[in-house]
């Protein structure tokens, strides 16, 4: 009797950390929303004459995107039950692919607006650089978790998306040494 009680308690403990495909898809939707908000704040930042408040809005939106990415990573790493079906994997990959143009636009915007950040006093470029590095690290962990969960026939497609996103991050990181 005691063994079954321990087994039941253990299964409750493990299931408390399990995620579903729906959780991952919801995370991707939240990530897309947060990245879009970040993109909008970067786009709104003027090429000249930007304010510290506008720059801090970008920082705040970066932090919100990073939080969503970290949650998405956790959920992607803990999807159960395994293996994930082909249809569910395809659905996750399709949702993941929608993030590519958003993140590429964000990173292009950061490159374009760097002179405007440099013109602000108070080390804003350093803060943007730190946010970029943190966003890169969180996005890398997220995309690694997504691609690791793909069946063999979808890994190449996932890795191709990952490669294009990583190249966009490399260009942005080069602009912010």
Quick overview:
With 177 residues, the chain is mostly helical. The protein is 82% helix and 0% strand.
Helix amount? over 70%
Spell the H/E element sequence. HHHHHHH
CATH class: Mainly Alpha
CATH architecture: Up-down Bundle
How far the N terminus sits from the C terminus, by CA atoms, comes to 62 Å
Secondary-structure map:
Elements: H1 2-15, H2 21-44, H3 52-77, H4 86-97, H5 99-119, H6 124-148, H7 152-175
Helix pairs in contact: 2-3, 2-4, 2-5, 3-6, 4-7, 5-6, 5-7, 6-7
Organism: Lyophyllum shimeji
InterPro entries: Cell_wall_mannoprotein_1 (IPR021054)
Pfam families: HsbA
Features:
single chain, 177 residues, mainly alpha, Cell_wall_mannoprotein_1, signal, Hydrophobic surface binding protein
Task: Describe this entry's structure for a reader.
- This protein has one domain (19-175): Up-down Bundle (Four Helix Bundle (Hemerythrin (Met), subunit A)).
- Helix content is 82%, strand content 0%.
- The chain contains seven helices and no strands.
- Helix 3 (52-77) runs parallel beside helix 6, helix 4 runs parallel beside helix 7 (152-175) and helix 5 (99-119) runs antiparallel to helix 6 (124-148).
- Keywords: Signal.
- It comes from Lyophyllum shimeji.
- Residues 1-18 form the signal peptide.
